[in-house]
Amino acid sequence: MKETWHFLNTKSNDPYYNMAVDEALMNFVSRGEIDPVIRFYTWDPATLSIGYFQKLEKEIDIDKVKEKGFGLVRRATGGRGVLHDKELTYSVIVPESHPNMPKTVTEAYRVISEGLLEGFKALGFDAYFAIPKSKEAREKLKSPRSSVCFDAPSWYELVVEGRKIAGSAQTRQKGVILQHGSILQDIDVNELFDMFIFRNERLKDKMKAAFVDKAVAINDISDRHITLEEMEEAFHKGFQDGLNIQFKELVFTDSQLSEIEEIKEKYKSDEWTYRK
């Protein structure tokens, strides 16, 4: 008998709403109002999201972000800068006490990412998990070199044709795991790197080359153009197969909707975005 989880696709919304819904879902799961939930969403406008611990003014060229007309938001999860543009973003919210959820971040990442793995397979890709072999490689993962997410494959990295294909971040709060991440449809690497501050051009070029070597969008490796709708369908199936669950649609109550609006104000505030 498959366990039933909630599912919702909130489609395209502004960055503050997107982050508020993820945080609100953690609250709802924490309070036992809803079952574990998987959510899909996209971004309007295209947005640079930065990790909870990033030093915004030191690492990001804020004028450049504004000049390009991108949104800017700080996530509740760690990790580095991600440009959310042509992608499908997913989030998984599940109690830490769930019998299928391992205690460590790494192992839980592996379990949740089975859904991604099956999604890529549903699109016809040869996907697998890569595990760093050497102690040196594992140590290196603990000290990422740049502000740009996707720069270093982490443990159990999801790889397609030898390149990292999905960047994910995880946080645990109020007894709940939140993992969210980007499944890239297309990516403009120059656009992304333009928004980060580097000590010099040489370093920027070096980082960009390393990124291109590791990060890949679905349409970079597909022999045909894969649409967002196809991605939504494949990963909807993938998460059900990978986590051995079935879905029921989640519809927010009025009080849940007003909680989302309340949290949204936090993500809009300079106090949160520019926090030291």
From TrEMBL:
Pfam families: LplA-B_cat. Gene3D superfamilies: Bira Bifunctional Protein, Domain 2 (3.30.930.10). The keyword Transferase applies. One of its GO terms (biological process) is lipoate biosynthetic process. Pathway: Protein modification; protein lipoylation via endogenous pathway; protein N(6)-(lipoyl)lysine from octanoyl-[acyl-carrier-protein]. Residues 32-247 form the BPL/LPL catalytic domain. The keyword Transferase applies. GO terms for molecular function: ligase activity; lipoyl(octanoyl) transferase activity. It comes from the Bacteria. It catalyses: octanoyl-[ACP] + L-lysyl-[protein] = N(6)-octanoyl-L-lysyl-[protein] + holo-[ACP] + H(+). InterPro entries: aa-tRNA-synth_II/BPL/LPL, BPL_LPL_catalytic, LipM, Octanoyltrans_LipM/LipL. Its EC number is 2.3.1.181. The active site is at residue 149. Keywords: Acyltransferase, Ligase, Transferase. SUPFAM superfamilies: Class II aaRS and biotin synthetases. The record marks 164 as: Lowers pKa of active site Cys. Catalyzes the transfer of endogenously produced octanoic acid from octanoyl-acyl-carrier-protein onto the lipoyl domain of GcvH, an intermediate carrier during protein lipoylation. Belongs to the octanoyltransferase LipM family. Monomer. In the reaction, the free carboxyl group of octanoic acid is attached via an amide linkage to the epsilon-amino group of a specific lysine residue of lipoyl domains of lipoate-dependent enzymes. The reaction proceeds via an octanoyl-thioester enzyme intermediate. This is Octanoyltransferase LipM. It comes from Mammaliicoccus stepanovicii.
